[in-house]
Amino acid sequence: MKKNLLGMDFQELGENIGNILTKNYQLKQIYHWIYKKKVLEIDKFTNISKNLREKLSENFSFSPLKIIEEKISREDQSRKYLFELEDGERIEAVFIPQRDRTSICLSSQVGCKFGCKFCLTGLMGFRRNLKYREIVAQLLSVLHINRERLDKRINLVFMGMGEPLDNYENVKRAIKLITDPDGISISPKRITVSTIGITNYLERFLNEMKDVKLAFSMNSPFSGVRKELMPVEKKFPLKKNLELLRKYSKKLKYRITFEYIMLKGVNDSLKDASEFLKITRGIPKKINLIPFNYFEGSELQPTEMEKIEEFAEYFRDHRIVVTIRDSKGKDIKASCGNLFAKTDIKKIKLK
Ligand code: SF4
To answer: What superfamily does domain 66-332 belong to in CATH?
Structure first.
């Protein structure tokens, strides 16, 4: 069976094919075909000798991930992909065309261990981390499938399955390859990592990936409510994370986005808004309010749009930039918190 090299960085690629190369520059040529030109068929590597192409093809491939399912939204043309990895595990990624840009939502883990109550991925439990090259292969697969639709600038968001900072080393190595100016070359400024706040890795992220944007998933300013919604609050409390964000925000060239899923009667009162402002004082920020995408079995309910507008208005009155997310791909369950839906969800209770 041929070894699939898609997603390997320059170093690992060299370790795998170095012994069949006859000239030093050939590794760079192959790297360019894959990552700069995004040509994945070895027989199209036209500046490489036929002999070397044959040797490569005998043992290796650069194959996109196997697609199990592609769902296309009738509402907004978002495309959700269910991919199968080499060991049979499955992940999802979403391609979201917008007016002025295209966003691609990537997964960082198979499943997730954190069990946030508003998120279906959390309900499936944790299976394993994605390797860095699986993250890159996931992106290249989405780009390859949509190669006719890549006429707008691309934004990447790590908001798919999994908590990216819980798979820090692989996400970091993947981002290094994705941002390589000599390769895929997506600017770090166009990449957003969304986290629920794994404090020790959050600090490393803020130190080591300064140009990559951070979105912090807040969802309640009150520790007690947050604990119920997001069990991670018990181990990595909001207070500690906010101290860290306050400290590092002065060095960042962008404003941190605070994500806030609007849950009826849980976190959507003006008291919540006021406390939110109070505890994030001193952190340059944008707020992204996310209407909850209800799923069957959940006892959480979405806040009415009128109330979300009121909530947003409170922040605008305090001159804070606030947006209300226009969730994409709702009809194909591609929107936030809806990835890898199971049908047999047990009742989820907010105590
Ligand atoms: S919101 Fe993120 S961290 Fe929470 S369960 Fe879902 S995938 Fe995991």
So the answer is: Aldolase class I (3.20.20.70)
- Tens-digit pLDDT string for the chain (351 aa): 899 999 999 999 999 999 999 998 999 999 999 999 999 999 999 999 999 999 999 999 999 999 999 999 998 899 999 999 999 999 999 999 998 999 999 999 999 999 999 998 888 899 999 999 999 999 999 999 999 888 899 999 999 999 999 999 999 999 999 999 999 999 999 999 999 999 999 999 999 999 999 999 999 999 999 999 999 999 999 999 999 999 999 999 999 999 999 999 999 999 999 999 999 999 999 999 999 999 888 999 999 999 999 999 999 999 999 999 887 777 777 666 666 644 334 444 433
Q: Respond yes or no: is residue 296 known to be catalytic.
A: no
Q: Kindly list the protein residues whose Cβ atom lies closer than 6 A to any atom of ligand 1.
A: 112, 114-116, 119, 121-122, 162-163, 196
The protein residue with its alpha carbon nearest to ligand 1, atom 7, reads 162
Which atom of ligand 1 lies closest to the CA of 160?
7
Residues of each domain in the chain carrying CATH 3.20.20.70? 66-332
What six digits make up the tokens of 99?
């007016």
Say if strands 285-291 and 256-262 run parallel, antiparallel, or are unpaired: parallel
For ligand 1, the distance from its centroid to the CA atom of residue 19, given in whole angstroms, is 42
> 115 alpha carbon to ligand 1 midpoint, in Å?
6
DSSP 101: E
Cα–Cα distance between 229 and 287 in angstroms, integer? 19
> What is the rounded distance in angstroms from the CA atom of residue 134 to the CA atom of residue 256?
27
CATH code, residues 3-61: 1.10.150.530
For the CA of 161, the closest atom of ligand 1 is 7
Task: Clarify whether 336 is annotated catalytic.
Answer: yes
- Output DSSP code: residue 330: G
Q: How far is the CA of 119 from the centre of ligand 1 (A)?
A: 6
